[in-house]
Design a protein that fits this description.
Elements: E1 5-6, E2 11-12, E3 17-18, E4 24-26, E5 31-32, E6 37-39, E7 44-46, E8 51-52, E9 57-59, E10 61-63, E11 72-74, E12 77-79, E13 84-85, E14 90-91, E15 96-97, E16 102-103, E17 108-109, E18 117-121, E19 124-129
Parallel strand pairs: 1-4, 2-5, 3-6, 4-7, 5-8, 6-9, 7-12, 8-13, 9-14, 12-15, 13-16, 14-17, 16-18
Antiparallel strand pairs: 10-11, 18-19
Length: 135
């Protein structure tokens, strides 16, 4: 695992790319889908019971475009518990996704997402609150 901290009963597809495994922390019962990229220059936290769907990109780095040297900037990504990052979503450096949130397919998340919010689009915007039905 090359230093990654992986919880119990986690499913990670073999096509997932983790750039720096020692910066990866995954909670229990999480799933990371086919062709997910985790560009984790800093810590990438993925909470318990969270699903990262196919083709999503978690980006933990950018460049200081105001600098003549364009230095690399490393930022942590924090994804809470019970979150669903849908297919091909892009999570920007430094973003925090609150517990229970849903990020719609192909969304581009450039700002923090509050707990139990559903967001979508480019740039992502809040659509509504997530409410769990009792069955």
């Amino acid at each position: 695992m090359f230093g990654a901290r992986i919880g119990n009963r986690v499913h990670i597809f073999p096509t997932v790319r983790v750039f720096f495994p020692w910066n990866l922390i995954v909670g229990d019962h999480a799933a990371i889908g086919d062709r997910v990229d985790i560009y984790n220059l800093d810590k990438a936290h993925i909470g318990n019971r969270t699903t990262i769907s196919q083709g999503a990109y978690l980006c933990g780095g950018t460049h200081d475009f105001e600098s003549v040297r364009m230095e690399l900037v490393k930022k942590e990504i924090w994804i809470g518990e019970d979150v669903w990052i849908c297919a091909q979503a892009f999570i920007s450096p430094g973003v925090r996704i609150g517990d229970g949130a849903v990020v719609g397919a192909r969304s581009v998340v450039t700002r923090d997402v509050e707990a139990w919010a559903i967001v979508g689009g480019n740039p992502s915007r809040k659509i509504r609150n997530r409410v769990i039905r009792s069955e």
